[in-house]
Design brief:
alpha+beta; conserved putative lor/sdh protein from methanococcus maripaludis s2 fold; Elongation Factor Tu (Ef-tu), domain 3; OB fold (Dihydrolipoamide Acetyltransferase, E2P); 4 helices; about 35% strand
């Protein structure tokens, strides 16, 4: 068998070494070219990223206020009725007047009640004398137990008759049970009233009640004893305390009655006025933003757009806590974030952007131009 010569073998080995070297060189060049291409693509994507103006927002903690439409009501309303019969012979305060506790409003004719009182007193004296005499005789067994019981009963009956007539005499004077204002009076001089007839209506307006209806979503944030502010039509704001919170909701409205008691010395505030209640609820962490920054996601959720640490757009749902003429207080955001203040309408969540400080006016002008260009491309 013919064997290859030494020169042929050396030539083949040299050829293989050259091919291997060429392959190694080509492979290294391809890897370097691939890395260069990836960097170039990243630089190109970054160059194409739109600019947006951002502002750093920091949260703060406030006490949430619950605002309730309300009305004023007196602390109490009392209908005074006659407790005995009689003709009206004396009148006290007129309608609208302020009266003190115990002040006479209506006086009725006493008629024969004083004579009956004198008779009852005399009967008591006579019955007590008989009872004393019987007790002395009882020691000598001249009076039986039955006779003693009868005499004791007579004394008790005489005393009861005196108490009854004295109460009738007292009831001929109809007086104010507490400091109040005379809302109405239904009798005049000469009128005859019977027991149970209404003679006057009194109202107590100090404290004054500011009454509203709280929605069930707010009721757990409130409690008796909490402070609140009442804005009463035609009056300055006044502070008060929650005096009553209904334990059960109204069946028709599913709301809970709430009463704020406010001081009303002198009766300057009246019942039946329109009002608004501002009630302190729970503490909440909020950001102050412009209403122009609000956006909607694909599901219709209200939120804002911000830029994260990787310069990507993120959408955050928010809860509007309160609103004013120039700003909103919203909850549901991180403690700090970069809000997109210009250009948010031209970017979507996940987009890569170039954030520009809001204070850089020249850059913000570029943002507006670039954003318009990007919108045209889209």
């Amino acid at each position: 068998m013919h064997r290859p010569s030494t020169s042929v073998l050396m030539a083949c080995g040299l050829a293989l070494a050259v091919v291997g070297w060429m392959a190694t060189g080509l492979g290294g060049t391809g890897a370097a070219d691939g890395a260069s291409t990836a960097v170039a693509q990243a630089d190109s994507a970054s160059a194409r990223a739109p600019r947006v103006a951002v502002a750093r927002s920091q949260a703060r903690t406030i006490t949430r206020e619950i605002v309730v439409s309300a009305r004023t009501e007196p602390n109490r309303v009392v209908e005074l009725r006659a407790e005995t019969d009689g003709r009206v012979i004396r009148l006290g305060a007129e309608r609208g007047a302020t009266v003190a506790a115990g002040e006479t409003l209506v006086g009725l004719d006493v008629r024969d009640r004083e004579a009956r009182r004198d008779e009852a007193r005399a009967l008591i004296e006579y019955a007590e004398l008989q009872l004393d005499a019987a007790r002395k005789l009882k020691r000598d067994q001249f009076v039986s137990d039955t006779q003693m019981a009868e005499l004791i009963s007579r004394v008790a009956a005489a005393r009861s008759a005196l108490s009854s007539v004295e109460l009738e005499i007292e009831n001929t004077r109809i007086a104010a049970p507490f400091d109040a204002v005379v809302q109405d009076r239904y009798v005049e001089l000469g009128d005859y009233v019977s027991a149970g007839d209404e003679v006057a209506v009194l109202v107590d307006t100090d404290p004054l009640l500011v009454v509203g209806d709280v929605a069930e979503r707010h009721v757990q944030s409130l409690a008796v004893g909490k402070r609140g502010t009442a804005l009463i039509r035609g009056a300055s704001p006044v502070e008060g305390t929650v005096r009553y919170l209904a334990p059960v909701a109204d069946e028709g409205t599913r709301t809970f009655r709430i009463e704020l008691a406010v001081p009303n010395e002198g009766g300057a505030l009246r019942g039946g006025l329109s009002a608004e209640l501002k009630l302190a609820a729970d503490d909440v962490t909020v950001h102050a933003i412009s209403s122009a920054l609000l956006a909607l996601d694909d599901d219709g959720t209200v939120g804002i757009k911000a830029v994260d640490a990787t310069n990507r757009v993120r959408f955050y749902p928010v809860e509007i806590v309160s609103s004013a003429a120039d700003s909103l207080l919203v909850a549901g955001l991180p403690h700090e974030l970069d809000l997109i203040t210009v250009g948010q309408g031209y970017v979507r969540p996940g987009d890569l952007v170039i954030p520009v400080p809001e204070g850089d006016r020249a850059a913000i002008t570029d943002v507006s131009i670039l954003s318009s260009g990007n919108a045209a491309k889209r």
